[in-house]
Amino acid sequence: MQMMKSFTIGRFDGHWINFVPPIQGGKFPLEPEDEGIVIEDSSGDDESIDSSVYMRNLPAVATSSTTLPAELDQYPPLTPPVQHHITTKYRELDRRLWKEGYYECHYSRYLPELARYTTLGLLSYITLRYGWYCTSAVFLGLTWHQLVFTAHDAGHMGITHGLVIDTLIGILIADFIGGLSLGWWKKNHNVHHFVTNHPEHDPDIQHMPFFAVSERLLHSLRSTYYDRVLKYDVVAQTMLKIQHWMYYPILCFGRFNLYFLSWEHLLFFKGMPKSGITLKFRYLELLGMCVFWYWFGYLLLYKSIPTVGLRFAYVMISHIVTMPLHVQITLSHFSMSTTDFGPMESFPQKMLRTTMDVDCPPYLDFLHGGLQFQAVHHLFPRVPRHRLREVQPLVREFCESVGVKYIILGFVDGNKEVISRLEEVAKQARMMKQCADWLRMDERDTL
To answer: DSSP 3-state assignment of 335?
Structure first.
């Protein structure tokens, strides 16, 4: 925040209309000396602009023309006064949360979680010593599952609200105990919060060639996060046609992908700072990853388990047990809108349009980790996880006051929505394959 203030040159009086970024097709006037170049200013400054005018000015890559009009009918108009009103009410709610103490973390809430971590970890160790290897693997997987929730808190600085302390807590849990890079997760997750469910920009929905939640991913879309084309190749064409059947089986192996992404980030990330606190965190993370593979790979798997078959079983069971966590992560977004309404849409409306909450009784909060309130969390990322249920009624009131839908489904219904979305895109993938085959047959007949 202090760094951002140093770039402030003034304040804008009126309704500010966000620009379309150049990477999304935005066009801006250049300096006078850039002669011979004709640039169109598509930002617009007319407060009376309506959604139909805005639709015509959207860049071609911004949306699917077949789905956007229908979605627009379900949400408030994209006119600046309406969206400004939504933003104003959102900021009022944020100030209320600060004033009434909802951003304060009650550390006593971590005592039951600490008891669960300790109990599960001890059960894993005790059963391992007794030679109950599969049972030990189950308890270890459950330990990892529970610990991730606290690592998530630390990554959002939602525990102490301090960068250093929360990052150290997160590295201890994620790297030393879980073998996953907190730095990678923060980089990935921050982008996800900025551009939620955007096919080009959000890495959390870029899982080619295994999953596609938007038909736009069927056209070899370029990911701005990974800086590469997500190819709709032969493997993708094969996998996406059955993705609704493979959803749960593939998520069983999700943790292995996180290992790869963590090491790739720590070893090869080009944007890693060459000095400062972030570099020190990187060295600490590398140490943590090595410590993890020493205790898990050497002391536990190699030294404590007698046969190769049992070692393989231990790895698979402990990792598959964490699968519900990956379902939890994808559940709140995979079935939601992937359409980009552009810069006219306010932040709170976009978060509520692309994120869903999961309904469950309070006594099951420990299973979901409190992250079933993803819509609330996306609106207020630094509200401590244990306070999200308390904030939920206030978010409902906010949604009713501004006319934006608040979507919440039960766990089973949420899963049905995800499978339905995956099946819908799978049908489109099969249809594209049939069309391509017919074209090739026509070409052969012509020759």
So the answer is: coil
